[in-house]
TrEMBL record:
InterPro entries registered for this protein in UniProt: Aldolase_TIM (IPR013785), Alpha-hydoxy_acid_DH_FMN (IPR012133), FMN-dep_DH (IPR000262), FMN_HAD (IPR037396), FMN_hydac_DH_AS (IPR008259)
Organism from which the protein derives: Streptantibioticus parmotrematis
Protein name in the entry: Alpha-hydroxy-acid oxidizing protein
Family to which the UniProt record says this protein belongs: Belongs to the FMN-dependent alpha-hydroxy acid dehydrogenase family.
Keyword Flavoprotein listed: yes
Keyword annotations of the record: Flavoprotein, FMN, Oxidoreductase
Entry-linked PANTHER family: 2-HYDROXYACID OXIDASE 1, S -2-HYDROXY-ACID OXIDASE-RELATED
CDD domains for the chain: alpha_hydroxyacid_oxid_FMN
Domain FMN hydroxy acid dehydrogenase, first and last residues per copy: 4-367
Reported cofactor(s): FMN
Length: 383
């Protein structure tokens, strides 16, 4: 897709080439890259393309309302910004620009533990809800301090990323020799990590070695108690794709799940998030909200995810494209485009409210989203 030559971009994807033109080549590949062959990056998009919509008619769509609540807080649309490290790589104001943009739309921003601005500074500029993403650090004392600081700064939820016992094999980072520029740091972890942050060697990804030194791969279900006992904030698990894990998380009382494969950056070959969503929604059975991220690039994608059972979706790379192309205004425009396209899709699909986005809106209902179970109970199937 190419950028429009007249006026501002008309679609989110038109922000990608604008961002690329303004970023160092290695940074572009750090943003865009996935793990291994990037088959999961592609699968996320393919799933959205494959599922099609059966619009309803004669349903009075003179007013279509995209507003909702996300973890109990009002939002103008079922959207949020997914956690991403170092927004300063995309624009000078870093996460401050992001939370201002998201705040204007009243949608949540998940700030990464590797944010390039302090939690306090981010919170000062936030006009919408801000959540904190955590990796399970070896140093539990550091984790505890980070949680307390975020609570004190007014963050509203904790998002524990559970798909990252180690970093995926991000080949593009290695091929393009990506490393953090010296002026970009992780101030919320300062002193604990700066020793590693800017190391690099030819041919290997500095970032993955750095992360592996920090992330504790022994994370398991019993650790959730530790986190629960140290915070009063809602706990969201990010990176769940299996129904069994989703059911267990709901049994343990987590406050929400994000169906995510980390934008295809972790396990290459992992399911597309839209494909995994219906099974997760069924397993959770209404006990907590289920969110989705990965490959959301337009309003009809949001509509499909909601029809398949998501309460809201989070957006990753497109927000970085907006930030890189035009700072805060670019990120705001990306989110606004998504919200406006969703409103448009709702009208054309005959759905005036988010409640009317149900699985029967999708071709063959949720079955079109999730392939049927391979085990066939029928006598023919058991032969
Ligand atoms: C540059 C970049 C950095 C990311 N950093 C983190 C991170 O620090 N923690 C995390 O949980 N997810 C991280 N993610 C994954 C996102 O939260 C999200 O799952 C993914 O980007 C969604 O897919 P999308 O980019 O196709 O929208 C990162 C993604 C990108 C592109």
């Amino acid at each position: 897709m190419t950028a429009t030559t007249v006026g501002r971009p008309l679609t989110i994807e038109e922000y990608a080439p604008l961002a690329r033109a303004r970023l160092p080549e290695a940074t572009w590949h750090y943003f865009e890259g996935g793990a291994g062959t990037e088959s999961t990056v592609e699968a996320n998009r393919a799933a959205f393309r494959r599922v099609r919509i059966r619009p309803r008619v004669l349903s009075d769509v003179s007013h279509c309302d995209t507003s909702t609540t996300i973890l109990g807080e009002p939002a103008s649309a079922p959207l949020g910004v997914a956690p991403m490290a170092y927004h300063e790589l995309a624009c000078e104001e870093g996460e401050v620009a992001t939370v201002r943009a998201a705040g204007e739309l009243r949608v949540p921003t998940v700030v990464g533990i590797f944010a390039s601005r302090s939690f306090e500074r981010i919170a000062e500029h936030a006009t919408g809800p801000v959540w904190l993403q955590l990796y399970w650090l070896h140093r539990r004392g550091v984790l505890e301090r980070v949680v307390r600081r975020a609570e004190d700064a007014g963050f509203r939820a904790l998002v524990l990323t559970v798909d990252t016992p180690r970093l995926g094999r991000r080949l593009r980072e290695a091929r393009h020799g990506f490393h953090l520029p010296p002026h970009i740091t992780a101030p919320n972890l300062d002193g604990e990590v700066t020793g590693f942050l800017h190391e690099h060697e030819d041919g290997s990804s500095a970032l993955s070695r750095h992360a592996d030194a920090f992330i504790d791969p022994s994370l398991n279900w019993s650790d959730l108690d530790w986190l629960r006992s140290r915070t009063r904030l809602p706990i969201v698990l990010k990176g769940v794709l299996s129904a069994a894990d989703a059911a267990r998380a709901a049994d343990l009382g987590v406050d929400a799940l994000i169906v995510s494969n980390h934008g295809g950056r972790q396990l290459d070959g992992a399911s597309a998030t839209l494909d995994a969503l219906p099974d997760v929604v069924r397993a959770v059975a209404g006990r907590c909200p289920v969110f989705l991220d990965g490959g959301v690039r337009g309003g009809t994608d949001v509509l499909k995810a909601l029809a398949a059972g998501a309460r809201a979706v989070f957006v990753g790379r497109p927000v970085l494209w907006g930030l890189a192309a035009a700072g805060e205004a670019g990120a705001r425009d990306v989110l606004t485009l998504l919200r406006d396209e969703l409103e448009d899709a709702m009208a054309l699909a005959g759905c005036p409210s988010l409640d009317s986005l149900t699985p029967d809106l999708l071709d063959r209902g949720a079955a079109a989203v999730a392939p049927a179970a391979s085990y066939d109970e029928s006598p023919e199937g058991r032969r």
